[in-house]
Every structure is written in structure tokens, then in C-alpha cells.
Amino acid sequence: MKLEKVIDQPVIEAARFLLRPLRRSDAGLLNMYAGDERVARNTTSIPHPLPPGATEAFIARALADDRDEDVWALDGAQDGLSELLGVISLERMGGGQSEIGYWVAPAFWNTGIASEAVEALLEANPHDARTFFASVFQDNPASAKVLTHAGFQYIGDAEAFSVARNAKAPTWTYLRKLDR
To answer: What is the Cα–Cα distance from 56 to 52, expressed in whole angstroms?
Structure first.
């Protein structure tokens, strides 16, 4: 019998799915979706092609006790959707700040899943943050729309290295302060 480690991270309810901690059993779907070049190119950290073991290493980092980033699976199984629709994360930045990141599997693009996940995570605010940051590549306006829909304000242009692109690409940076 193999036991899976339980981590101290809340399960967050959204209307059509749960945000739950990753599990080792997510590796197959994560590998399939993150291995899609369209997903990888819209992130800074997912390589393409996805090398063997990368998904398992990602899950291990997400389950580590000393992690700086909490990662949730968007799990729609309870509502007849896929067990993994995408991933959303919060990275602790200190000073009451967190950075949000997310991706959704292409089969669920343009369905409102990303917007619902971002809004649920902001409402739950598991890091008790006062300020949230996010950035998107400028050739991904759909992701920018998700952020502005969730109340993020554009604060400027920058650039970030994308492992899948093997290059720096221009980004838009966003900020959302919570009223407290």
C-alpha cells in the first residue's frame, strides 16, 4: 500500500470545480496538457518538448514542505468535467504580496474556467495577501482579459524568459490590491 502525503493547503470551491492540491495521480493529465506547445508557450517555466520526469518533479515541488508556491489543480470531476482542467498557483513574495499564475488545458479555453479559478482563489485568499501580481505574454490577450475581468489593473510592460520559446518575450504586468 502506498500512502500519499497530505499537505497543508486548502481546498477551494468554485461554481463548476474545486481547486485542490496536486496529487501524484495528476501526472498523466498534467503531462498531456503541459506537453501541449500551446500551453507551454504561454508560461515561463514549462519546457517544450516536455522532458521525461518534468511533470513528476513539478508535483514533488508542489508537495514539498518548504515550498514558496502553492499549486492547485482545477478539478471538475464532481460536476462531470475532467479531473484536471488546468493549474493555478500563488507564489509568496513577502510583505503581504503574492503572484498568481495559471494555465488551462486547450479543450477548456474560452469557457470561463480561468476567470472562475482566479476569482475563487482571490476570494479565498489563502496567503492572506493584500496585493496580488500577475503577468502575461503580450501575445496572449485572452489571459490578460482574465486578469482585468478579475479586477487586476495594468501597471506596465516588461519581458520574461519563456523556456518553451527559448527566448525573452514581452509581457504585460498587472496588480490587484484587496480592500481590507
So the answer is: 9
Write the secondary structure of 88-119 as one string of H (helix), E (strand) and C (coil): EEEEEEECCEEEEEEEECHHHCCCCHHHHHHH
- Give the cell for residue 140: 496572449
The predicted-structure confidence for 94-143, as pLDDT tens digits, reads as follows 999 999 999 999 999 999 999 999 999 999 999 999 999 999 999 999 99
Q: Is there a contact between 90 and 121 (Cβ–Cβ < 8 Å)?
A: yes
Question: pLDDT tens digits for 69-82?
Answer: 999 999 999 999 99
* C-alpha to C-alpha distances, 180 to 13, 64, 89, 125, 131, nearest whole angstrom: 22, 31, 22, 12, 11
| Contact residues for 171 (Cβ-Cβ < 8 A; gap 6+) | 135, 136, 137, 138, 157, 158, 159, 160
Q: How far is residue 96 CA from its own chain's centroid?
A: 19
Of 171, 179, 117, whose CA–CA distance to 149 is shortest?
117
* CATH tag, 12-132: 3.40.630.30
